Amino acid sequence: MAEVPVPLVPTTPFTTILNFRDVGKTVNQLSGSSILREGRLMLIVLQPDKAAADDQVALTTTYGIRTIIDLRSKSEHQAQAEKSIPDPSYLSIPGINYQLISLNGSAFERALIRKLSWSNIARLLYHFSTSNRPAAIRTLTTTVMAPQGLTPLGLTTLSSSHSEVLAIFTLLSVPASYPLLLHCTQGKDRTGLVILLVLLLCWVPVGAIDKDYRASERELVPELEARLEELRAIGLGDDFAECPERFVETVLRWLADRWGGVEGYLEGVGVGSEMRERVRANLLVGDGG
User: Fold this and answer.
1) What are the helix (H) ranges across 84-223?
2) What is the largest CA-CA distance in the chain?
3) How many helices (H) and strands (E) does the chain have?
4) Segment 246-267, tens digit of pLDDT
5) Left, alpha or beta for 110 (phi > 0: left; psi -120 to 50: alpha)?
6) Cys-Cys with 188: which of 139, 157, 210, 216 at CB 3.0–4.6 Å?
7) What is the structure's pLDDT at 222?
8) Residue 164 forms beta bridges with which residues?
9) What values do phi and psi take at 126, rounded to 5?
């Protein structure tokens, strides 16, 4: 795995929570200018089975988090429950607006199913009929996801998960949602995709977006071996633990070719001009309270 040369990206301030970043602070440092308001939008990898109590409390007391958007799927929550991992303590803290928005939800799954052969569709239906969701997911991972790779799957997410993107940007458009924390499992793929859209909307230089995205690879090194074991168990290759070098470039080109850019894409999924302006007002320096 290639080392990511991003010395300007702050490392996580926590001891037991990986890949925490204040997106505004990071972007401002990387771009060398004051573009985004700091202390507004955070990304993180949450490990409720490993996080120390003081780290969990600091999310709200130190950073004042009001909203947490969890982008994980039903199968990921099921896997957490099967490990008997208790819910993070912040779920019970009054005042936290906890939102479950599975970015790769039913529409994404249908998009993958359409790529299956008839025999694999039969296997998938059998697993679902016997309530064996993990086996059904493995059918998708081994026959569709692994052969495609991370970057094409990111484009599939953008193509299919329109209602989920709208739900996320609806929350981002509300001033009372902030400070807001966004996470999935690693904080680099689904979270990285959403952050990419937000930063493009806020006119952040592409170079800064790319460095911010690729910094997650460095931040996740402490749990790399455990993550590789999990990926291999569901039929995915080691490359799924990486941040592809041309990910941001490819997504940017796809948005331009298919939608005329991020504004056209967001308009197409239902994030209208007024909502986009509200998101910018919440995040850009000098654009709101």
Assistant:
1) 106-113, 118-129, 133-140, 146-148, 150-160, 162-172, 190-201, 206-219
2) 56
3) 15, 5
4) 999 999 999 999 999 999 999 9
5) alpha
6) 216
7) 63
8) none
9) -65, -45
